[in-house]
Amino acid sequence: MPRLFYPAAWRGDVVEDLFGFPVSDPYRWLEDSDDARVRDWAAAQDRLFLACREQWREKEFWASSVDQVSSFGVPEPPTVRGSLMFLAEQLRGDEQRRLIVVNAEGDRRVLVDPMEIDPSGHTGLYAWWPSREGGRVAVQMEVAEQPGSDIVVLDARTGEVVDGPLPRARNTSVAWLPGGDAFYYVSRVPGEELAPDDMRLHRRVRLHRIGTPWQDDTVVFGGEDAPDHYYGLTVGADGRRLAVTAVAGPTAQNDVYVAELVDPEAPRFVKVVDGAAVGARVLPRFLADGALLLVTDHEAPCGRVCVADRHDAGPAAWRTLIAEDPQAPLDECLVLDGPALARPLLLVARARHGTSALTLHDLADGRLLTALPLPGAGVVSCLRASVPHGHQAWFSYCDATTPPTVYRYDAALGTMEREAGAATAGHAPRIRSRAVRCRAGDGTEITLFLFTPDEEHRGPRPTLLYGYGSFGMPMRPWFFPLAAAWVGAGGTYAVACVRGGGEEGQHWHDAGRGPNKHRAISDFNDAAAWLVETGTTTRDQLAIYGQSAGGLLVVAAAVRRPDLYAAVVAEGPLCDMVRYERFGLGCTWTDEFGSACRPEQLRWLLTYSPYHNVTPGTPYPAFLFTGAVTDLQTGQAHVTKMCAALQHATAGDRPILMRREPGTAHAASPASKERALTADILAFAAEHTGLASKTTCGSGSA
């Protein structure tokens, strides 16, 4: 195709001396989204994208395909409290999920419908926390492009608002006290109490009593010495103890504090786990006798389950209940201790090379009792039980061809039943799924999930390769509408489980973060090269795709090996790793990536920061950068600056495009906008890899 004429972007002469490193930043001016020059330039980019989009040959086909494979229904297990069951449901045509409550007789009613609150579809159901008895539920909504989230408390039987709103509670945890008259939650310090340029989180744990003004809520934990901490809250079944986990951003270690709730307004906390000393994650919950059940990767990178006395919870006093399996990382576990059981039980979910297994254990000694049958070789998630005591467990199951489906396990009867789930609007394609192993350049084996059409085929196929590789997040063979649509059209969809993720436990995460982040990028390129070398695809048929930190992965990979790819799609990516701490929540991610404020860490960042490694005169692949106009999580400047840098530098004729979406958030949008984005991503990738619909192929078109 002819080379595009890109909107003119002035190249500034900003060069900073950072610890002796001259760091050029020619597009610093694009960080100011309020500048009229930036608005005009971005509007011109919008027009360019729409003009290019009009030339895509099969955009209507992809829109239809995405609509057919998108799933609707109840994808997550219910939250059961007392005689009530709370669940989220999204039907075909719904822009957002609705909160449904079901009583003991099976009668259903809509408790919260975001479309009644905001018919535009830009307000979504973010989280909900029913009280222990089920009479009340704290609900949090999310409004696109707005930094704060309020909590309101509803009567679960009538839907009437009984309290709130409680402001600035984004990313909170809620722990109800027995009786449903009070709960602990997390909220940010009011903005007027902070300096104008203070981007820190400044969270506090507060106690709220129903019916009292939020201004009177007592701060029970948190202070100025922990400006970037996230807090997790857990109250024991008897309501007499509170545990708080404290972590500075998404780091690999956390502190644990425990308090006796003699006076809920003034709990006296004891630090029972020192994250810096232990150097591991430790997630606590209280057992019926007051002891602590600890899920940890301390001295067990793939995770183990321990029991400890709440007064002496140092690692030396931990008793291992479920030992580590180095070949199967621990995903989650759930206590079942209802009166219908002969003895308390522990349900454990693990993943071996991405495929889940569920096992049942005696809670007293960890002894294996049985392995539970699953519907297939797929993924189990979201283990839930009734609170405070229950004998039934709900979980979600999915695989490459099965949308999320809810199952209920009754430990008293030993039965497993399908209870609810999601379904696609049309017929999901038949997909063949398998895991393969390839070697990275240093000899390390990497798992690749491959999804292909369930039909005989010889020769390479157009391939879309996905990766993430950050924050210890494991990749799994989930049901993914984008993948189903791509494979349904005859392509191969692949997922690379690179270092930096959590597929092989904490050591796998450590091997791809901080000074080792370059390994995640080289792993991804090695996986892509393997796909080409084995004849799975060719370089002209290979597109790559990543979201958020995965966007960083794919952009960095393509900047390092532009010859390897035909197209790159980066959704809400990080690109300027020297200044990422100044945008969105970047200041909380230094444990993962490093900080440009430290000379040795600046060196790490400069080696792979995509924005700083763009080379003029290079024939780059086609790029599609997508993101919200206002991205409160990563910051929109990553997209604008990287797009401008590549448009200036590329010597090729493949387009560098930017697709902006107003009225959305980093990871939450109305369903129709999500489908439209997915269709555009697929159409762009297909356009540059040669994947054509079977209808088009049959008509003899290219």
Automatic annotation (TrEMBL):
InterPro entries: AB_hydrolase_fold, Pept_S9_AS, Pept_S9A_N, Peptidase_S9_cat, Peptidase_S9A, Prolyl_oligopep/macrocyclase. It comes from the Bacteria. It is an enzyme of class 3 (hydrolase). It catalyses: Hydrolysis of Pro-|-Xaa >> Ala-|-Xaa in oligopeptides. Residues 13-415 form the Peptidase S9A N-terminal domain. Its EC number is 3.4.21.26. GO terms for molecular function: oligopeptidase activity; serine-type endopeptidase activity. Keywords: Hydrolase, Protease, Serine protease. Residues 483-690 form the Peptidase S9 prolyl oligopeptidase catalytic domain. One of its GO terms (cellular component) is cytosol. SUPFAM superfamilies: alpha/beta-Hydrolases (SSF53474), Peptidase/esterase 'gauge' domain (SSF50993). GO terms for biological process: proteolysis. Belongs to the peptidase S9A family. PANTHER family: PROLYL ENDOPEPTIDASE (PTHR42881:SF2). This is prolyl oligopeptidase. It comes from Microbispora bryophytorum.
